[in-house]
Structure to design on (500 residues):
């Protein structure tokens, strides 16, 4: 199904369509979350239906209107036509990241933990979707084996984890030094949360479920006057809420592994270590990961990778009065016996203006150096042979990545689209976000799943424009996709085509 957008002017672009859309209006707000279901042996259960789940919000049962299952099957990306681009080329799915937290790891346990990571990761054979990062003493992310490295080993080539010992040794030599004395607990916590937020943003470029195994002594959930730099009581709960929302938008979960012994005087939690343990369990619960239960890094990595093999996404509409700015507890159960669910334990019901989530998502996509791949997009720009500043843009959105909420015999999709241009000078121009709401019958939805959601736009671009970025945000599932098309290559292609 191909959509042509309504006539509107922005960026010197003209959009055409057969459908007209009103401005963003307050509508029922869908709450969605990911669930992992495992049996008694800890193996994924991949044959559950929506009727097998029950959701209780603040003690009241809710009707599930969104249900999707990722059973671990890998959809092969479609072959691209000449001059066509995709945000899914070479991107692995179900990524797992091990984050070794040097910043919050005690000096006495740092070496032991490093050796354990080396020992445990050496034995992992399927390491193509596994990455290793440090959180350095200065609070920055350092890639030991990062996202820019080849994701898959060539046939006959050993996985990168077989070389983890020299990789780890070289990385530790590069980053390890005495902890700066001017970084106190409060600043260290904020730097940690900022680094985790940055990691969540980078994970958004990968489709599917993402898991972060955070190897750390932990950070406190609060500080008393004697521990803060201002002498005041400090509560980090609001920052944890914001971080959990960032992980939720990226489809990522936290699996903490706490190395410190409870009761250690060097614990970040202010002497007892209880605060740091609470923080880790809180983040695991808010993101749908597993709480810290042991010091076994390898077990946590294997569990995270196993959980990523199959997950469910369900959603429901909370009553409008539920968005009261308070924390709401969730209880998600399965009607099937011997099935254990792993899901978010609650959510912060913060009210927000219509369109605010879409604006935040678009801003994140604009500022990201990567294309976000949660929603698969492919597209091409064909330049006019007589006027290179004009062209025809065709795009296809993978409907498998769009959350369709069931409303009777119809399926509602709520996409928010944007088109961005960038110039060589660094100037970025943003168009107005366009709502695209679809009400499909079951047959129309099935057709969209097969052929994708097509979008066609005639564009007029200034000569200074070097790249075009299309952004799609799914209001139902909070998923984000973006595709960058280099215009110089397109212009060259158009000139070449015109010469034949």
């Amino acid at each position: 199904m191909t959509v042509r957008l309504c006539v509107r002017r922005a960026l010197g672009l003209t959009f055409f369509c057969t459908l007209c859309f009103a401005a963003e209006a307050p509508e029922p707000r869908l709450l969605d979350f990911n669930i992992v279901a495992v049996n008694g042996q800890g193996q994924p259960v991949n044959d559950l239906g929506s009727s097998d789940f029950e959701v209780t919000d603040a003690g009241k049962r809710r009707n599930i209107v969104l249900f999707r299952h990722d059973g671990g099957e890998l959809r092969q990306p479609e072959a691209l036509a000449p001059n066509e681009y995709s945000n899914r080329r070479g991107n692995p799915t179900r990524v797992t990241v091990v984050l070794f937290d040097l910043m919050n790891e005690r000096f006495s346990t740092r070496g032991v933990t490093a050796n354990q990571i080396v020992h445990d990761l050496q034995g992992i054979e399927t390491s193509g979707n596994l990455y290793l990062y440090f959180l350095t003493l200065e609070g920055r992310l350092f890639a030991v084996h990062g996202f820019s490295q080849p994701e898959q080993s060539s046939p006959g080539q050993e996985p990168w984890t077989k070389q983890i010992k020299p990789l780890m040794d070289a990385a530790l030599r590069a980053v390890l030094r005495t902890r700066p004395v001017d970084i106190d607990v409060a600043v260290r916590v904020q730097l940690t949360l900022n680094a985790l937020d940055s990691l969540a943003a980078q994970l958004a470029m990968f489709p599917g479920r993402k898991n972060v195994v955070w190897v750390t002594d932990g950070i406190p959930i609060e500080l008393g006057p004697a521990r803060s730099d201002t002498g005041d009581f400090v509560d980090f709960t609001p920052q944890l809420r914001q971080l959990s929302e960032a992980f939720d938008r990226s489809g990522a979960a936290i699996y903490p592994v706490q190395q410190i012994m409870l009761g250690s005087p060097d614990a970040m939690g202010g002497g007892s270590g209880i605060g740091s343990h609470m923080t880790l369990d809180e983040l695991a619960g808010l993101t749908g990961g597993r709480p810290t239960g042991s010091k076994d890094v390898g077990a946590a990595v294997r569990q995270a990778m196993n959980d990523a093999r199959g997950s469910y996404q369900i959603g429901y509409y909370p009553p409008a009065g539920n968005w009261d700015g308070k924390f709401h507890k969730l209880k998600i159960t399965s009607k099937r016996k011997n099935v254990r669910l792993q899901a978010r334990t609650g959510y912060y019901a913060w009210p927000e203006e219509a369109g605010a989530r879409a604006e935040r998502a678009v801003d994140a996509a604009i500022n990201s150096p990567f294309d976000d791949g949660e929603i698969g997009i492919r597209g091409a720009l064909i330049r006019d042979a007589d006027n290179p500043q004009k062209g025809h843009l065709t795009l296809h959105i993978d409907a498998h990545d769009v959350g369709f909420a069931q409303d009777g015999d119809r399926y509602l999709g709520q996409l928010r689209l944007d088109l961005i241009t960038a110039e060589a000078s660094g100037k970025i121009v943003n168009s107005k976000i366009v709502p695209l709401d679809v009400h499909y019958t079951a047959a129309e939805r099935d057709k969209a799943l097969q052929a994708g959601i097509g979008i066609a736009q005639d564009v007029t671009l200034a000569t200074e424009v070097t790249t075009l970025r299309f952004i799609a945000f799914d209001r139902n599932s909070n998923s984000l996709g973006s595709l960058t098309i280099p215009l110089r290559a397109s212009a060259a292609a158009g000139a070449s085509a015109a010469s034949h």
